[in-house]
Specification:
This protein is about 80% helix and about 0% strand. With about 110 residues, the chain is mostly helical. Helix 1 (about 1-15) runs parallel beside helix 3 (about 60-95) and helix 2 packs antiparallel against helix 3. The protein is elongated, with a radius of gyration of 19 Å. About 10% of the residues are buried.
Length: about 110
């Protein structure tokens, strides 16, 4: 849920930001799709592991895989946050004057 919330909030803001071209917004969409796809693969693996009828393994192995999947999903979330932060900073760098800088900071809730 945190991944989806972060994506929705940030992507909506980036689409409003005049400092990004249509091509750049499309690229961001592709990055988001990649992060989502990877997260879904991790969830598929998790569902397979917790379904005792589909997979035979020890409880220790199940816990190991669950821990690995949790780490992967946390990594996806961190990657998403870093990608969004880089885009916010890029927008600030592209601002041409103090008014644009203030407007951009307000858009992204930056100090």
């Amino acid at each position: 849920m945190r991944i989806v919330d972060e994506y929705k909030r940030s992507y909506a803001l980036f689409k409003q930001d005049d400092h990004f071209s249509t091509d750049e917004i499309e690229y961001m969409g592709k990055v988001y799709t990649g992060i989502f796809d990877e997260s879904l693969q991790n969830l598929d693996q998790l569902f397979l592991v917790i379904n005792a009828f589909a997979t035979t393994m020890t409880d220790a192995k199940r816990l190991e895989i669950i821990d690995q999947v949790a780490g992967n999903i946390n990594g996806n979330y961190t990657d998403l946050q870093q990608f969004n932060q880089q885009n916010k900073l890029l927008s600030l760098q592209r601002a041409k004057n103090e008014q644009e800088i203030r407007t951009t900071k307000a858009l992204y809730g930056l100090e």
